[in-house]
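Hi there, hope your week has been kind to you so far. Thanks so much in advance, here it is:
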Amino acid sequence: QVQLVESGGGLVQPGGSLRLSCAASGSIFSTDTMGWYRQAPGKQRELVAVIISGGSTNYADSVKGRFTISRDNGKNTVYLQMNYLKPEDTAVYYCYLVRVLGSPYWGQGTQVTVSS
């Protein structure tokens, strides 16, 4: 069993930055894949960024060059550094963890609002 707790969301001006954190507790394995999804009102949940056990990363086209995902295995924490934020980045951001051949665990979400 895994619990994921996101933090770091808030209100930011366009062009600003936020750093999201996802702290995982429970039985965490080095082979676990972790990442971030987001969902805006009236829109589908979309993958933002993912980091696999080997350290490889992947990003949605909409955030490439602006967001960076990283992982601190010692702290069981995943981060999402978000720079040059745009209004269209406004969403609830969800941390997730996926076991090999398993179903995902989800955090409760943290609100990111980009507005003037």
